[in-house]
Amino acid sequence: MPLDINIANTNPTTLKTGCLVLPVANQRKLSGSTARVDQACDGLISSVLKQGDLADKPGSTVTLHHLPNINAKRILLVSAGNEPVSAAAFAQLAASQANALNAMNTKDAVSCLLEVEVEGNNNARKAQDISNALVVSQYQFDFHKSAKAKPVQLNKFAIHNENKKDNKALTPAVARGISIGNGVHTARDLGNMAANICTPTYLAEHAKQLKKSHPSLKVTVLGETQMARLKMGALLSVSAGSEEEAKLICMEHRGGKSGDKPVVLVGKGITFDTGGISIKPSAGMDEMKFDMCGAASVFGVMRAVAELNLPLNVIGVVAAAENMPGGKATKPGDIVTSMSGQTVEILNTDAEGRLVLCDALTYIGKYKPDVVIDIATLTGAVIIALGHHTTGMMSNDDDLADELYRAGRQSDDKCWRLPIWDEYQKQLSSNFADIPNIGGRPAGSITAGCFLARFASDYRWAHLDIAGVAWKQGAAKGATGRPVSMLMEFLLQRAHG
Ligand code: BES
Ligand code: MN
Ligand code: ZN
């Protein structure tokens, strides 16, 4: 059953629910609903806190059962730290709440988390974060399992709101939180799917399915014949060794004015990256099924944009191909002509992401974009630079870079800018073609960005290298759904200010 989230304003002490969530911002002085409930149950909450049962650490929780004079079956206390809390800290509180509720197996809950004071966030934004965290926390991936996961219990949730005046703003905020969460689910599902199932053709089918649920989307798919006609020599060189046909998938959402230039998102969709003839070592190679997570994030964003019917023109483009060795595969030293006319010497067939992206970046020029953002698991080097926390961002436009940086901070799905100054362009020189596809070891993420920049000079453009953040390794192996949240924040800012 899909999760139902409402806004409610009933007395927390008399309200009947499986669980009432109360924030504890300052353990010494309770306020708002928490204080009222404490009073009603003769200070039981205060005495539990005095006992030290709730850790100070923001996001810590403790569950109390059957409090006297209270109708709620359980009380979940959530430690909020010192008010006002930062926007990022609040998002984490919302996540703690969601995880605790899922763990206790309650079917319904009412939360007073809106009462936490947050730096710079109004109640609508808090409601968005609360809803988003609930949806994201309920993610399960059992597509390939014969025993399906047990459906999550919690399906009825209410956000307690003292201030009735806000109610009107809260409902659309809840919708935003849910849709961004749905977008994250889509990105994770596609990322987690095995590469023998999730092929370029599968991704193209997914786009058509998306159109079925959102008929306003316009979907077009180019196959290899059409790409050859368009002279996409770089993109085609990547799929040359594969039995799977490459696809260029375009999804158009025209929610803005017809004259408004669109935001174009371009995702790297390498459904499996063996490295090609420059083959990768076998240890951990299974993780190269995640090499389409940029594309997956574009699908996630397009789903959320369509669900919310954002008043913007947004176009999502996915360059999907499989990078395999084979008799017809591209060899190191081969030279291809990109759609832009620039010739590329492919010195390493494992630097394939930039090859599919460069032709996509040329192709999307036809949309006369306002800004273009590409999203790609492009380089291992970005993990050396920024680890697994932060997306590497590069841009030819300072304002766009700032916008993305802020969107990352606000959504806690952060990026950090790396320079693509001319000095680095010098590392891209070839004796035989206009440009080589690799720039040597130093600044590997930057030279990849510099390569792309040569195909993006006609518009404002940013590149997001998500190789370090798109999936988790080890016991928690799986796609994260990043950077759907950052991109949605970016688009919502543009739509609503
Ligand atoms: N998909 C990889 C990048 C990657 C590597 C992402 C490891 C996440 C983890 C990309 O296609 C690639 O192979 N890049 C090469 C570029 C090099 C040959 C210049 C790399 O990073 O090693
Ligand atoms: Mn590669
Ligand atoms: Zn790759």
SSE arrangement:
Blueprint: E1 4-8, E2 20-24, H1 32-40, H2 44-50, E3 61-65, E4 74-79, H3 87-104, E5 108-111, H4 123-137, E6 156-160, H5 167-192, H6 200-213, E7 218-222, H7 224-229, H8 233-239, E8 247-254, E9 263-273, H9 293-308, E10 313-323, E11 334-337, E12 343-346, H10 353-363, E13 371-376, H11 381-386, E14 391-395, H12 398-411, E15 415-417, H13 422-425, E16 435-436, H14 444-453, E17 460-465, E18 471-472, E19 478-479, H15 484-496
Parallel strand pairs: 1-6, 2-4, 2-5, 5-6, 9-10, 9-13, 12-16, 13-17, 14-15
Antiparallel strand pairs: 3-4, 7-8, 8-10, 11-12, 14-17, 18-19
Helix pairs in contact: 3-4, 4-5, 5-9, 8-10, 9-15, 10-14, 12-15
The structure holds ligand BES, manganese (II) ion (MN) and zinc ion (ZN).
Main-sheet strand order equals: 7-8-10-9-13-17-14-15
Alpha-beta content class: alpha/beta
Average pLDDT for all residues: 97
CATH level-4 homologous superfamily of the largest domain: Zn peptidases
Radius of gyration: 24 Å
Task: Please report the distance between the alpha carbons of the first and last residues.
Answer: 34 Å
Largest sheet: 8 strands, mixed
The CATH architecture name of the largest domain reads: 3-Layer(aba) Sandwich
Which small-molecule species are bound to the chains here?
ligand BES, manganese (II) ion, zinc ion
Tally of alpha and pi helices: 15
What percentage of amino acids are in beta strands?
Answer: 15-25%
